[in-house]
Design a protein that fits this description.
Elements: H1 10-16, H2 26-36, H3 47-61, E1 68-71, E2 74-77, H4 78-85, H5 90-102, H6 110-123, H7 125-136
Helix pairs in contact: 2-3, 5-6
Length: about 140
């Protein structure tokens, strides 16, 4: 009885290759992000900061799914961060801006801080709503 090799044949490699998806351009993703967060609805003085946040979001969204993104000092799978960033809307960005304005500590790594703030803005939406409900009642 002949032992089968565990290496794939060229035919198996071709048949079993993951389907390739075209990588969207940074500009196309940035345009989609600015639409999702409703850039035009922000105050004029906030727009440069909103564009900075949109660029960070777009940069993460165009990354390959493999790898990691640093969030709160820990390595989070890129795919997870992309899924969370895909949920960012106007209110999330507004929350990041207001939190950033209130921050009194020196921020040494602005981009890392903002990446985490954007990620947390989605994760904290539910707890923020629950907290407001608890404080102000029904």
């Amino acid at each position: 009885m002949k032992m089968r090799s565990f290496e794939k044949t060229e035919d198996e490699k071709t048949r079993c290759a993951a389907p390739s998806r075209p990588v969207p351009s940074f500009r196309a993703v940035l345009n989609r992000v600015t639409e999702n967060i409703q850039l035009e609805c922000f105050d004029e003085e906030d727009r440069p900061f909103v564009v900075e946040l949109a660029r960070i979001i777009a940069d993460v969204l165009v990354r390959p799914d493999e790898g990691f993104v640093r969030i709160e000092g820990r390595q989070v799978p890129t795919q997870t961060v992309k899924e969370v960033y895909g949920e960012i809307e106007h209110e999330n960005v507004l929350q990041v801006i207001r939190t950033f304005e209130k921050t009194e500590t020196l921020i040494k790594h602005r981009r890392m801080y903002l990446q985490t703030a954007l990620y947390n803005s989605v994760m904290e939406t539910v707890s923020d709503t629950v907290n407001k409900f608890a404080v102000f009642g029904a």
